[in-house]
Amino acid sequence: MSKIFLVVTILIVASSCAFRSVHRHKDITYTDSNANLPTKQLDVYAPKKADNLPVMVFFYGGSWESGEKKIYNFLGNRLARREVIVVVADYPLASEYTIPSMQEAALEAVNWTKDHIADFGGDTDRIFVSGHSAGGHLASLIAVKEAELAPSENGNKLAGSILIDAAGLDMYSYLQETGKGEGKKYLNAFTDDPAVWKEYSPMYFLTDDLSPMLILEGERTYPSIQGSRERFMKRVGEVGIEDVTVKIYPKKKHIPMITQFLWTPGRVYRDVLGFIEDN
Predict the structure, then answer these.
(1) pLDDT band at residue 277 under the 50/70/90 scheme
(2) Sequence-distant (≥ 6) Cβ neighbours of residue 113 within 8 angstroms
(3) Can you give the chain as a three-state secondary structure string?
(4) Are strands 41-47 and 85-89 parallel, antiparallel or unpaired?
């Protein structure tokens, strides 16, 4: 997971061409009213003359310690050209900040979207949360703790969540097993407190009123991601949740699960856009 930032940086060049049909509204501060968080910004990608379009709030990966919203031009531009408004948010990173601050910032970004996205042509009743890797973990936390979103005119309900090779769905079990070995590198974000590991592991907060969820995973992703997702889905079955769909991408590794968004005719766009259309 630590390679994501370095690898995806090269996509800035690949996505630097002009997309005349898309407006990118840059560096909008969304944390001003929260004294507990550093000042953070988000970008909004919207088609020209957007009118009541579905919205995706996206959080990038980088092992909870690296990443920048500007790298994800390719995702925002391409989805906006397909009639989805995209919000890409920066959030606090380790080791300066820990996972509680990251979740709080992610919630703030979604709250900002609920309150302001209509000004950009977005439908406040069709807001989806999404993310890759560590960002998928943050999106999943929002999905399972939806009641923590601030009230807004259209209520709390999300249209759904789209998790792209999401890490940390059961960080508690993973760190119990590896916190003194390979998992030690994540303690800057998750602390050395097992109570924190569990509090920020989405599988322990699943309820039968979960909004629709789509999980996209690479067949050759990290074993820790596969194992965490398997335990998550076992819990989904125990709770009796029906609207969680898992799609496995043959031969795909972790980083290609996000870089495949460079290729708009690919399967990932059919899956994501189909899920958005159905919800």
Answers:
(1) very high
(2) 55, 57, 87, 122, 127
(3) CCCHHHHHHCHHHHCCCCCCCEEEEEEEECCCCCCCCCCCEEEEEEECCCCCEEEEEEECCCCCCCCCHHHHHHHHHHHHHCCCEEEEECCCCCCCCCHHHHHHHHHHHHHHHHHHHHHHCEEEEEEEEEEECHHHHHHHHHHHCHHHCCCCCCCCCCCEEEEECCCCCCHHHHHHHHCCCHHHHHHHHHCCCHHHHHHCCHHHHCCCCCCCEEEEEECCCCHHHHHHHHHHHHHHHHHCCCCEEEEEECCCCCCHHHHHHHCCCCHHHHHHHHHHHHC
(4) antiparallel
- State percent of the chain over pLDDT 90: 86
Lowest mean pLDDT among 16-20, 114-118, 168-172, 198-202: 16-20
pLDDT tier at 12, thresholds 50, 70, 90: very low
Q: How far apart are CA 79 and CA 70, in angstroms?
A: 15
Radius of gyration (Cα) for the chain, nearest Å? 17
Q: Which domains, from first to last, does the chain contain?
A: 4-278 (3.40.50.1820)
pLDDT in tens, 201-221: 999 999 999 999 999 999 999
Cis peptide before 140 (omega within 30 of 0): no
Return the closest-CA partner of residue 86 out of 38, 49, 111, 121: 121
Read off the pTM.
0.92
Q: Is the pLDDT of residue 9 over 70?
A: no
Instruction: Say if CB 204 and CB 236 are below 8 A apart.
Output: no
